[in-house]
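Amino Acid Chain and Its Fold in Token Form
===========================================
What this section holds: a protein sequence and its matching fold, both as plain text.
Structure line: whole-number tokens from a learned vocabulary of local backbone shapes, matched to residues.
Purpose: to set a sequence beside its fold so the mapping can be learned.
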Amino acid sequence: MANNTDEEQTQALGYEQARDELIEVVRRLETGGQTLEESLALWERGEELAKVCRRWLEGARARLDAALAESGQED
């Protein structure tokens, strides 16, 4: 179980950092060789990282939508 500091650090990651770590987690899971406990921990970390990436992408989408709406009002 992660403590608040670990969760806060994960939430503070930039998109590229979270994406790169997520790629590494997936690579390790696909390679295999971990115990069940290690695999579960990797899976959980991957889920956390995916949430961070999703939040960044949703924020970027909202900014794009706002910019498009603003430019549409100016026309």
In short: The radius of gyration is 17 Å. The helical segments are 4-11, 15-31, 36-74. Residues 21 and 27 are 10 Å apart (CA to CA).
